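re: ur msg from earlier - yeah i can do the glutamine complex, just paste it... oh wait u already did. ok heres what im feeding in:
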Amino acid sequence: MTKYIFVTGGVVSSIGKGITTASLGRLLRNRGFTVAPMKLDPYINVDAGTMSPHQHGEVFVTDDGAETDLDLGHYERFMDVNCSGGSSLTTGKVYSAVISAERRGDYLGGTVQVIPHVTNEIKRAIHALAVEQEADVVIAEIGGTVGDIESLPFLEAIRQMRTDVGHENSMFVHVTLVPTVGPWQEVKTKPTQHSVYKLREIGIAPDVLVCRSEVPLPVDVREKISLFCGVPIQAVIESTNAATIYEVPLLYEEAGLGDFVVNRLNLEHRDANLTEWKRLVDTLKNPKRKTTIGVVGKYTSNGDAYKSIAEALTHAGIPNDSEVKIKWIESDSLETGIDPKVALEDCDGLVVGPGFGSRGIEGKISAIQYARESGLPFLGICLGLQMAVIEFARNICGLDGANSEEMLDNPNYPVIHLLPEQKHVTEKGASMRLGTYPCNLVHGTISSQLYGAHRIEERHRHRYEVNNDFREMLQEHGMIASGVSPDYRLVEMIELPSHPFFVGTQAHPEFKSRPNRPHPLFQGLVKAAVERKASVASSLM
Ligand code: GLN
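and the outut:
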């Protein structure tokens, strides 16, 4: 029998519901349970693929090619599991399914309504994930905040599930804000009380309250919350800001949340294995070195737009015993007078990240040129690879005006062009080359050394690719295709053997990095950056 944990949020958004959900999953994984995380998003978009990173942050891609909310990235990283398209449900998806069923005539003349048809579809999707992932526990996070009009059908569905699966098999975790106000930093419980009243109005009584607070909560405050909200004191969990997000599971374990959940859901009692997690948190908190990586992108004003890249860089610091500081560089700024040499002066390495559209690409190209010429370690991701190819074609192969067909109609030299299978695509949603594809690495390249394998698999999200008409020319001038699709049709990775570390990948390696298994390409970049920093320092002595 699968157990279900539902995570809701109250008072304000962005208080770390995703990290709480992910951490809860870690607590159960530490005890050896199979956990299937899920995100229920009340917005009407069918998936996150059509949403701007400016507004919504990164689009996270699963192995099976679903374009999802970035919280799935947290789940995968904390729980070390692979999500699927079924791990992400939106109002758009739910209504599409209900309306298709209605058009097919499945409802046999019935009036189609939010209750039961929409709620049934939500419950069906939750149960389907439990079956698909053979989960001991499904942890489903409901996006938005209690009180939002849009989240009501989801809350109603999880309310019904309590009756469907039984009290012992389901629990509600509510993440709430406990603010401090006034000159004496007084801790206020009223917003939490109101948020719980709101939940109760809907018919949900929380079993656990995770109280996000700037300061540690005095016992009398926790007692008050317990009394007014009807939650046992041991389930009023204090959650202050941690030194690193990866410490949160350890803090929750210490606060007794793991044992509480196991008892409440009547799960088998097992020892929690914290060794690996404690070790990595310890390195993150006390690194021996510090490295700075410049990340050039066009959405750098939203810290969430490159979430998985930022996390992958943090993970890569662990085996290198280095803190990885990220310097965000807006690609536009490199087009309006800021010299890349100056922007990257204090950086030991460079990442040029994914993106769409022409804004900022010349800035990216000039940053890459600087990295190529100065020996600065470089990792190009998806658009980053494409821009590295353009830079090399223009400045080394002498192809003046080389460009991508995405950026310019009929460029002189279309070194990046549309994938053939994309030529007839008209709809934007879920129509890119998405999800996991295999790639063969060329023996002796940096990439094959880092991966330690010949055949690898990475997740993709793109429409354009390196134009094979120019492959030979690039190669002759010193840019090699270090990774190709098994049918040899697509360039998946590039390298400059003459450079200390110049690697580009058409895929998104950032999606597969985990704190306990940092991604080899990011590890390689940070290692090269650490070495460069040391050699620059010794040359100054
Ligand atoms: N815009 C490019 C393409 O579609 C790169 C996509 C990306 O960076 N994810 O091919």
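cool cool. The chain has two domains: 3-279, 287-539. ping me if u need the other ligands too
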